[in-house]
Amino acid sequence: xxxxxxxxxxxxxxxxxxxxxxxxxxxxxxxxxxxxxxxxxxxxxxxxxxxxxxxxxxxxxxxxxxxxxxxxxxxxxxxxxxxxxxxxxxxxxxxxxxxxxxxxxxxxxxxxxxxxxxxxxxxxxxxxxxxxxxxxxxxxxxxxxxxxxxxxxxxxxxxxxxxxxxxxxxxxxxxxxxxxxxxxxxx
Length: 187
Known about the structure:
The protein is α/β, with parallel strands linked by helices.
């Protein structure tokens, strides 16, 4: 298995300009900022939510893993929110389920979709921390499983060696970008 290296993020490229335009349209409609963050296991989603007590810069944080299972477990859940809200979750199945959530990406004009992967050096630290905390090497503590999942998710971000969707290396970085764009637009 070949690991995909970190890519260079240039927020001045077309992908991020399109993201800013989408955020402006959402703001101009008078709608709250709704963000669906797609990440991979061991990226630090639960830690981020706990660190900020479920609210980051006036955005309510929701953990996809804490929501009930079922067919309705998609970004549709965000559409019911009346305040700035962020749904953090993986963008695919688990170890035994194949990667299959592309249908939950770009579903709604009123939801901002981001990918957030920690840089590889930070991911390795998180994996070691998880292994020490859980005292096991299986499942989502196994680097092979996590890297395989991450590499599969790159198929939604990179196509024909071109970046096609927004990627950030930290939750703060991605969310701050969206909040800054949302706040900078005036009706």
